[in-house]
Amino acid sequence: MSWDVLLIKAPPEITSLSIKQLPDDFTLKLDSRPNVISLLNEIVPEIQYLDIKWARIRTDDFSIEMNIGSNDPIEAVMLHVYGKENSIQVIKRICQYTGWRAYDTSTDSFLDFDEKTLDSFSRWKSYKERIIEFINSTKKE
């Protein structure tokens, strides 16, 4: 079970991906495939490409699976985050370097990389642990 974060290019006045809030001319487009891959390689040299659609960043503390998709240009990148909260620093670094924004799908809001981001991560982790505990308890019955 992952914490899912969407990387997109969106102006700062957009605070949600609600259809009501998006301007009529809003389109998803990060950049060309070669440019996105080049940027990711510069920012996160340890990135591994699993195939044309998927990449992974893995450390001892966390793993981030990246669904890049196969389109060119790349519209967005979905991050599936597993592990500890220091994964947030990698997401922050990507956003700072590229100007992209990180959208927390569990809260319907963009990450500001402040205390609220850590709270959101902690709530997801707590939820995940409760689900795992429930599944494990039902197996014992």
Rounded average pLDDT: 86
CATH topology: TATA-Binding Protein
Contiguous runs where pLDDT drops below 50 for at least 5 residues: none
CATH architecture descriptor? 2-Layer Sandwich
Termini Cα gap: 23 Å
- Could you tell me the number of beta strands? 7
Number of domains: 1
The shape, in one word, is globular
SSE arrangement, N to C: EHEEEEHEEH
Total count of helical runs of at least 4 residues: 3
The strands making up the biggest β-sheet line up spatially as 2-3-4-5-1-6-7
Cα gyration radius (Å)? 16 Å
| CATH level 1 class label | Alpha Beta
**Helix/strand class:** alpha+beta
What portion of the residues fall into strands of 2 or more residues?
15-25%
The biggest beta sheet reads: 7 strands, antiparallel
Write structural notes for this entry.
This protein is of the alpha+beta class. The protein has a single domain, classed as 2-Layer Sandwich (TATA-Binding Protein), CATH 3.30.310. Helices cover 35% and strands 23% of the residues. The chain has a seven-stranded antiparallel sheet. The relative contact order is 0.20.
Question: What would you say about this model in short?
Answer:
The chain has three helices and seven strands, in the order E-H-E-E-E-E-H-E-E-H. It has a seven-stranded antiparallel sheet. The longest helix has 26 residues.
